[in-house]
Design a protein that fits this description.
Helices cover 80% and strands 0% of the residues.
Length: 407
Amino acid sequence: MIPASLRAIASDPALRLAALAIILTGAFAASIGPYQSLLAIEVFGLSENAYSAILAIASTTAVVAALALGILTDQRANRRRVAILSASLLLASVVIPRLGMSATAFWLGHAILMPLGSTLFGQIFALTRLAAASRPTQERDAILAAMRALFALPFIIVLPIWSIAFRSGATLLYVYPVTGALGALCLLLILRAWPRDGGTVWADPKSGLSFAAALKEILVPHVAFRIFCLGAIMGGMTLYMALLGLVFSGLPGRGESATAIYAGVVAGLEVPVMLAVPLLTARFASTTLIAAGAATYTIHLVGMPLLAASDAVWLLTIPAAIGGGIVLSLPIAYLQDLVSTRPGMGGALIAVQRVVGDVLCAGAFALGIWVQGYATAALFGALIMMAAAAALLRADRQPGRGKVSAS
């Protein structure tokens, strides 16, 4: 039986466009995410510390871009033009490293252009929020969770294909033409089908806020603190993607092929969890579920480097999928509700949350490598996740949830 959220997406042109765009960006992420660290270190010759620096710079770039574009789209309601720009930058981010084949080209593509282009993710969810705004809250949140599941769906298909390709002799550089094709398709889709600015069936008034006034809305302590906590939780998942290829590299029976299979299994199991999230939110508070998901995910994060050489490592895909499915889907509606009258900013906060996670991931990665190795980095990431989950639980026990009202 098809979930009601997917039927709702299929019946609405704007939601269908958002779904196709998020599937393509998911396929893009599935093709580049698990292999970015290997490309940096094994192909382009960067050190582990240099790769940590790339993660940190990319995070800074992404947060500045997400906030600037989120504010801009709310100010001017020019969402189509900004989406076209972001998709173009995402395409350029994989074309330039492949053509340049130098450390400089890698830095430009992965530290600057890719985080700029990745703001498209938040813009797609802003469009989803606007298109579903007239629906009841529970149905709207189910649509958002389903949209996040559609982002994970390509991992089930794309990663096994990469596994076969690597076993057949493909090199890591094949990642670039494939992601380039996916980026080009996404750009063409947006050019063809993204709703015209000012011509939507839903109201999209201009905010009229200056950059300073818009930033002030999210810098109030009770909002900023929640964004930080959610970002810290997300950092553990970013760390998993950074560690997976490196942990499996060089082990008998592992390497690039096993990396693809492992990530694909996790993503495949995440999809039904995400689709089931609305059933859980009917009984439990979102914050409670996020904390439980974070705790479950740490089992996988800590265990992966310790069990990488053992067949038992495949059992860790279960807590990874359960925890990841919850942590990846629930914060989207939570963050958008914090700034419910600003869809562009709500989409930007998804990126801001991720950037906070990227910064903490880079710190845990660098410190863990310096102290001992990959297992220590994973342990630091798990501790950060649990501390943030506990802090978020405590914050949401206080009266009010920190929602920003319309100005």
